[in-house]
């Protein structure tokens, strides 16, 4: 399939939202994006979160970007498609 690996959804972030009882639409509203856009980004269907959105998510949830947005098994950011 073009040699491009499928991106995995942000499972850890999704689990945190469920654990804390936070709806995706709440985070989307805080970021100023649509529910649909947030859903597509968290599931990695198309464009990824921008660096500004990642910072907003971290501020809203009081989490570390390193813990929730680094590529699994790596110490590098997945910035290939970050706007």
TrEMBL record:
Domain HTH cro/C1-type residue range list: 13-68
Source species: Domibacillus aminovorans
Gene Ontology molecular function: DNA binding
Alphabetized SMART domains for the sequence: HTH_XRE
Coiled-coil residues: none
Protein name: HTH cro/C1-type domain-containing protein
């Amino acid at each position: 399939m073009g040699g491009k690996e499928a991106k995995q959804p942000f499972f850890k972030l999704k689990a945190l939202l469920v654990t804390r009882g936070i709806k995706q639409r709440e985070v989307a509203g805080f970021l100023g994006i649509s529910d649909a856009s947030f859903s597509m980004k968290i599931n990695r269907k198309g464009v990824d979160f921008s660096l500004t959105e990642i910072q907003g998510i971290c501020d809203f949830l009081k989490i570390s970007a390193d813990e929730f947005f680094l590529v699994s098994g790596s110490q590098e950011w997945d910035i290939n498609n970050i706007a």
